[in-house]
Amino acid sequence: MGSTGSIGANTLKVIASLxxxxxxxxxxxNSNIDLLARQASLFRPKMICVTGTGLEKRLKGLLxxxxxxxxxxxxxLSEIVSRGDVDMAVFAISxxxxxxxxxxxxxxxxxxALANKEAxxxxxxxxxxxxxxxxxxxIPIDSEHSAIxxxxxxxxxxxxxxxxxxxxxxxxxxxxxxxxRSLKKKFILKHPRWNMGRKITVDSAxxxxxxxxxxxxxxxxxxxxxxxxxxxxxxxxxxxxxxxVDGAVLAQLAVADMRLPIQYALSYPDREASLVENLDLxxxxxxxxxxxxxxxxxxxxxxxxxxxxxxxxxAVLNAADEEAVTSYLGGGIQFYRIPEIIEDVLAGHKDTRNxxxxxxxxxxxxxxxxxxxxxLCCRF
Length: 380
Known about the structure:
Elements: H1 6-17, E1 26-29, H2 33-43, E2 47-50, H3 56-63, E3 69-72, H4 73-82, E4 88-91, H5 99-107, E5 111-114, H6 117-134, E6 138-140, H7 143-151, E7 160-167, H8 185-188, H9 198-206, H10 208-220, E8 228-232, E9 238-244, E10 249-253, H11 259-267, H12 281-284, H13 298-309, H14 313-329, H15 338-348, H16 359-377
Parallel strand pairs: 1-2, 2-3, 4-5, 5-6, 7-8
Antiparallel strand pairs: 7-9, 9-10
Helix pairs in contact: 2-3, 4-5, 5-6, 6-10, 6-14, 9-14, 10-13, 13-14, 13-15, 14-15, 14-16, 15-16
């Protein structure tokens, strides 16, 4: 799901290189139906789903006479993951549209390879409880969480003392905070290491991407927020580390290529030879680490605050960030306003539930936060 995005396209590259092991049963995309139709010609799925509004008829036209069932919307995604011939669902789709299909896939006992951040940020408690009830493990595709997963492979969680999430530092690592008000958008969108989408590049610039990853790690590895540290590591060779109770620190190192964690997630617990180049440590020369500047990147602290508050606060954090970044990219607010919007939305939220968290609670908080963030963006 999300086959036309960066993660989805790389997943299909991995599948093509291991075609003796995998068959594509279904594909989905939001609006890039031209690419989706080309992918369907190559991989011949039995089903396709498009989640963008009003695109189903045009997609059928692009497919011609191919015998592929076409579905649409969230219901179509749930239909895909319910199929008996689906063994694993790769969630490379972005946004909360992932939540119901993900929970459906878990209830159907499917293997889950997860690249969607919103699922664990907004509803990590629900997702992990559902997975535990079915006796399922969720294999992360994010390079940082994949690294942690690999470092902990075969080890009891009682041996885990601390997690170190690494960050390249983003495009503003060496830019003084006083310059944030005058930075051009093209500068912020030019990441020194990665070629990512616009939204995630802005998240990397504010460092809230690491805050979201803290929330993900808390749920994936059942560890308290206070035991998750962030280290700025500009070389981006160490993808994350764990410290065990005896003081040993284990790290996962590799070239920066998303095909590696994707292939690991698909083939787990096996390992397959990869088409990705090997890491040359001599060429890397040095590995440096430093603490993030929380005065310069306040969004990181806001994410920790939301996680400590619990309940629907992480969903509010995520929604406020998405709306603030959308406004910035559309010219509505300046870059430095993004953490201010997030902070104000969090401050205005009141989680007054007296019952266990539900999916409806998460979605209602998400909708409220989006309305509030848009209102605040209009002030500037």
